[in-house]
């Protein structure tokens, strides 16, 4: 358990919290006092157990973030158990490698549904209660694959760039209502989902200012800051947390 309880009294929704980066986010927010709802298509039992073992409180909801019905049901489940959400961390995403020449329109649309359309669905669901209570924090996961213009996954890079535009524009609409909207952009992170060649991890680490492979635990401090009161004047931004690979 971390020393600070800076999210005590807050209700947080973390999508994709069953594994990887989202699991680290859910654990961190719970450790700092938030009651956490994990929305995932996968089994979130391990995350629930880790949070309970650390004395935290969490709920798992089976939810496909690209489904309008699932997101509406998620909103109802969170409200019933914990009350309205104060914090939305939209982390769920997919990153299949497909060369553009091989990509089908179905593959393109399926990725956009999970990585981009979901931002609309989730914010439509959770934003109204944040606005009405004049406090809210929304963080969406982008990627430095956008900054690098990485090949082999054009649909993914387009979706992650779309998220940067999404948070900029939504931040402008809700800034006067106490709600901040930001993106967090990691580089290559070692998680269950990253099937990258071991040499890719070495090459990326070598190109960073801090020359080691990024892990989910390298991101949760930045996430905790973004959803805290300390970040009340920070909105519409993309915070790059990548060991100093992208330096702008
Ligand atoms: P991961 O594959 O390890 O975990 C993703 C989680 O999201 C899983 O629990 C999965 O079940 C869930 N998920 C997938 N599709 C879903 C859906 N339709 N609805 C609900 N849940 C769904 O992924 P990760 O590596 O932890 O990545 C998390 C986020 O960070 C993604 O948005 C990814 O694009 C972004 N990111 C990852 C890296 C990296 O190198 N791992 C780098 C930059 C950005």
List the helices and strands and how they pair.
Blueprint: E1 11-15, H1 20-31, E2 35-40, H2 45-53, E3 57-62, H3 68-82, E4 87-90, H4 105-132, E5 136-141, H5 144-148, H6 154-174, E6 179-186, H7 198-207, H8 220-226, E7 238-241
Parallel strand pairs: 1-2, 1-4, 2-3, 4-5, 5-6, 6-7
The structure holds nicotinamide-adenine-dinucleotide.
Nicotinamide-adenine-dinucleotide binds at residues 15-16, 18-22, 40-42, 63-66, 91-95, 114, 141, 143, 186, 188-189, 191-194.
Quick summary of this structure?
With 248 residues, the protein is of the alpha/beta class. Helix content is 43%, strand content 16%.
Spell out the key features of this protein.
16% strand; 43% helix; seven-stranded parallel β-sheet; 7 strands; binds nicotinamide-adenine-dinucleotide; alpha/beta; globular; 248 residues
